[in-house]
Amino acid sequence: MTQNERSVVLILGAGAVGLSLAGKLADVASVYAACRPWHAGAIRQQGLGMKGIWGEKTVDSISCIPGPAEAPGSPDYVFITAKGTDTLAICEEYAAVIRDRPVISLQNGIGNEEIIASFTSTVIGGTITTNFAIDGPGAVKVLRESGPMTLGLWSSAGEKSEMLDSLICLVRSAGVPVEASPDIRAGKWTKALLNIAVNPLTALLGVPVGTVQDAYLRRIVTALIEETFMVLDTEKVHLAWTTAGEYLNYLYTVQIPDFAPVYTSMYYDLREGKRTEIELLNGYVARLGERHSLPTPYNHCIADLVRFREPK
Predict the structure, then answer these.
(1) How much is the pLDDT for 156?
(2) In this predicted model, what pLDDT tens digit does every residue of 140-164 receive, in sequence order?
(3) Cβ atoms < 10 Å from Cβ of 101
(4) Range 186-309 has CATH code 2.30.33.40
(5) Does the pTM of the predicted model rise above 0.85?
(6) Where exactly does CATH 3.40.50.720 map onto the chain?
(7) Which residues of the chain have pLDDT under 70?
(8) By C-alpha distance, which of 258, 248, 243, 195 is closest to 218?
(9) Strand ranges (DSSP E) for the chain?
(10) How many CB atoms sit inside 10 A of residue 174's CB?
(11) Which of 263, 289, 307, 275 is nearest to 87 (CA)?
(12) What sign does the dihedral 228-232-233-238 (CA atoms) show?
């Protein structure tokens, strides 16, 4: 690629996160976004409207595509920003496009990268803690940024550090705070712990995050996290907290107070009759427990309860 050529970026499953990212990257790259028709129609007519801390502007250079036939033939980077429940379907639909291309997962939960890795040789895991929201058809707002995006190699056919460096430079040049992660698996688990601890309970009980401070619910949360740390130790995943107790202290003194009034995405999924990401959270912990012959009864139970509430 010459200095004057723009990178080609394809964003799949572009909702609030993907469209916000598209709006930023459009300044420095040629961006294609696969998004819902109501967004695509509005963006084609009047551009993408952006509000919030990522800028107040209209972006009219995003190419919205309805399917793989309209996707660029060899994109430099492919971002998947869809819910984890849609990862396999998206990879199957765009299999010919993403084959042998670097694919970046900016998704919640654990296990998306493993699905993607069966379709391409280079997978980059990512985390982002920014608060994104849809503000109407073809409109997004970025409300709060609690930390930089992190990107790290999940799997690759060879040495890909130069490619990761180029990706990070591209994202940074668009004005998005981003850092390289030396251990993206640990980073993904670090972000998932809060969701494992509180999302299913708040969804099943129809309550905000702060409610899990209740003594009865604390017993359940403690067991969920203790089982998770047992699995992580067997998987040799090392986090900033060396024990479940250390993390639980952080959970109850920092994370839950910060998110106390929030209703989780899993709560809204159940309320709206949608599938949740339980298989990428507690369900994933339970499956790893089975793989290693470790008892994870609380994660098994909570996952089954959410599955029961999901649409059949």
Answers:
(1) 66
(2) 999 888 789 999 999 765 556 789 9
(3) 19
(4) no
(5) yes
(6) 7-182
(7) 1-4, 156-160
(8) 248
(9) 7-12, 29-34, 48-52, 57-59, 63-65, 77-80, 103-105, 123-127, 130-134, 139-145, 149-155, 178-180
(10) 19
(11) 275
(12) negative
Q: Nearest to residue 30, comparing CAs of 66, 68, 69, 71? A: 71
Return d(Cα 69, Cα 140) in angstroms, integer.
Answer: 26
Residue type present at position 77: Y
Nearest to 17 by CA among 110, 147, 119, 108: 108
Extract the tokens encoding 255: 């994370």
pLDDT at site 2:
42
Partners of 33 in beta bridges: 11, 64
273-292: per-residue pLDDT in tens? 999 999 999 999 999 999 99
- Determine the residue type at 136: G
4 C-beta neighbours (distance < 10 Å), count:
5
**Per-residue model confidence (pLDDT) at position 92:** 98
Residue ranges, CATH 1.10.1040.10, the chain: 186-309
| Residue whose pair of structure tokens reads 């688990």 in the numeric block | 189
Please, which residues bridge with residue 11 across strands? 33, 79
| Cβ neighbours for 119, distance < 8 A, ≥ 6 positions apart | 91, 92, 95, 98, 99, 103
Residue with tokens 């379907």: 89
Domain spanning 7-182: which CATH class is it, in words?
alpha beta
pLDDT of res. 155: 79
Tokens matching residue 147: 């930390």
Give the pLDDT confidence score for residue 3 in this predicted structure.
43
